[in-house]
Amino acid sequence: MTAATGLREQKRRATREAIVRAATTLFLQQGFVATSVSDIATAAGVSRRTFFLHFPSKEDVLFHHIEGHIQVALDILSRLDPGTTAWDATQAAMYALVDAFDVTAANGDELADLRRQFVGSARGLPGSLMIRLQSVHAALLLALEERFPDRTRWPIISTHLGACMGAVTAAAGSDSGTRHSAMRTAISRASEGFRPVSTETDP
Description:
The protein is mainly α. The protein has helices at about 5-30, 35-45, 50-55, 60, 65-80, 85-105, 110-120, 125-145, 155-170, 180-190. It is globular and about 55 Å long.
């Protein structure tokens, strides 16, 4: 990475963080619905065009935390032993993803209540959240396929991961006090049909 590229990346991150901070403050002060993209851009000191270079919509700012959770799961994958099976790797990535959500909640995520209200008021999952979840699936699947290059195994890996993602998404609607355990249980149950015969225990 050149010095110029590094500076551009720092500026990009700084701008993105400024948008998130401004949106968070406004969402908490005046509510999600009452806050416009123009309000956020003005508070962040950027133009609407710059806002849209970083986020397709204000809903995407609301769910920006998911990107960090993806990185947590990818980091776990990168640290697994070379001999880890595809089944175990998929399980480890999904458990790491769910645990990252739990850590965020435990640390008093300021926007958690607004997200629950937003999702609860929608008919099904909001489109912006669906897109984010699809990006989670795509990122984890790519990492798994790179780790296990035998293409004949990819359909099973993809289906296993998809089953876990679907189960976790359904379990995410559980009561906040039981949500974390419900999502981990969902992963375990969704994975049973993909477990290799030689595997006897969960990771």
